[in-house]
Structure to design on (399 residues):
């Protein structure tokens, strides 16, 4: 079990750094969408994309040099079965949920570390929903029963997995998949970096630069640790146990399923047997945020402002818990870790999360300005603002 202790120690250090830096820099994916949608400011969104771009570049190089093989990921980002309904519906649910819950999975943990009791409630409810999705028949009955039949298996047409590299290699009959992976990864990373740095203004904000850089690097290191010889020793040792520990496998940072794992960990009196990669990452992120909030004198206890505020956060927690598991990850789990694998489903999930959050924020904005408007009037106007339907279908004057 020495490999397990060593690896989880490294993960706890990475999680602490992540929590500390994200808290310091105000790296927030929900805030990134909000700034973009409401005031047209792309600064924090670029910070998020900077993290994704760094992660793509790092994973591409690690795979090309044969240090890791992301196809072995515990979370099946590159599964040959293209579960498009999961990515779209789960992503939309998560995007809407994080708007109501005042943050994504990572931000919930940061708020917990900063003294926000509302986020503790969100964490517990989202964790219970994740438990419901992964440890009961709920997912199978409610979702898998109808999603599986309409989700194509790409392997049946000769495409081994759903990474963009493999798909393009198949379409263009490339004989060298390794070189194709390198080329596609470098091109996508370059496009992302061009989008971020083209205007020259992003580099002037050191917080956005630092936040995105650290998130991206932490994701890469986690992939490396769990995919390297240390990670393989951890996996192989666990396979020989009479009762294998849960959560063992190649992986990187994600926060919704670990919320469910944390419920199990605490429900078993913090038995180290249930101390998974995800639980370790979750606890250490909270601790990193807590240390920053104490040292910066920003620790503040916050409770629900009203019954409506309570209901809103509970609804958000339910949506991020179910949606996060359904879509195989959150804004970090899919938006950075998943995207770094170049899995097509991860990009679809990322777009769906952003879309769900953007529509929710627009609707709330219209409801605040037009107090007597109906939900459908706000929805139509919001969709028109986002150019998803023709402007002639809007019901309210643009604001």
């Amino acid at each position: 079990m020495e490999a397990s202790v060593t690896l989880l120690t490294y993960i706890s250090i990475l999680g602490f750094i992540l929590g500390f830096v994200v808290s310091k820099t105000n790296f927030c994916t929900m805030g990134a969408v909000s700034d973009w949608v409401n005031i047209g400011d792309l600064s924090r969104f670029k910070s998020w994309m900077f993290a994704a771009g760094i992660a793509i570049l790092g994973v591409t190089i690690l795979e090309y040099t044969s240090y890791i093989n992301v196809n072995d990921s515990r979370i099946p980002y590159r599964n040959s079965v293209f579960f498009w309904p999961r990515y779209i519906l789960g992503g939309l649910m998560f995007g809407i949920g994080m708007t109501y819950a005042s943050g994504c999975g990572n931000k919930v943990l940061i708020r917990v570390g900063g003294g926000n009791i509302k986020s503790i409630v969100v964490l517990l409810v989202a964790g219970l929903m994740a438990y419901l999705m992964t440890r009961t028949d709920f997912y199978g009955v409610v979702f898998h029963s109808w999603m599986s039949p309409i989700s194509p298996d790409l392997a049946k047409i000769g495409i081994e997995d759903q990474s963009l590299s493999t798909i393009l290699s198949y379409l263009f009959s490339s004989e060298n998949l390794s070189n194709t992976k390198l080329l596609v990864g470098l091109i996508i990373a370059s496009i992302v970096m061009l989008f971020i740095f083209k205007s020259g203004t992003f580099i002037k904000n050191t917080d956005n630069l630092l936040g995105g850089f650290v998130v991206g690097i932490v994701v890469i290191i986690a992939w490396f640790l769990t995919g390297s010889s240390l990670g393989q020793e951890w996996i192989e040792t666990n396979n020989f146990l009479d009762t294998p520990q849960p959560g063992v496998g190649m992986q990187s940072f994600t926060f919704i399923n670990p919320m469910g794992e944390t419920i199990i960990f605490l429900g078993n009196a913090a038995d180290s047997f249930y101390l998974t990669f995800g639980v370790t990452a979750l606890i250490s992120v909270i601790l990193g945020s807590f240390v920053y909030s104490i040292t910066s004198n920003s620790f503040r206890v916050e409770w629900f402002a009203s019954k409506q505020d309570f209901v809103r956060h509970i609804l958000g927690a339910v949506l991020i818990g179910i949606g996060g598991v359904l879509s195989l990850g959150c804004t970090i789990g899919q938006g950075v870790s998943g995207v770094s694998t170049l899995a097509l489903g991860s990009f679809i999930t990322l777009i769906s999360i952003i879309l769900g959050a953007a529509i929710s924020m627009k609707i709330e904005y219209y409801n605040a300005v037009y107090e007597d408007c109906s939900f459908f009037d706000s929805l139509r106007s919001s969709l028109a603002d986002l150019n998803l339907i023709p402007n002639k279908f809007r019901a309210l004057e643009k604001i």
The chain has one domain: 2-357. The mean pLDDT is 95. The two ends are 59 Å apart (CA to CA). The CA atoms of residues 324 and 330 lie 5 Å apart.
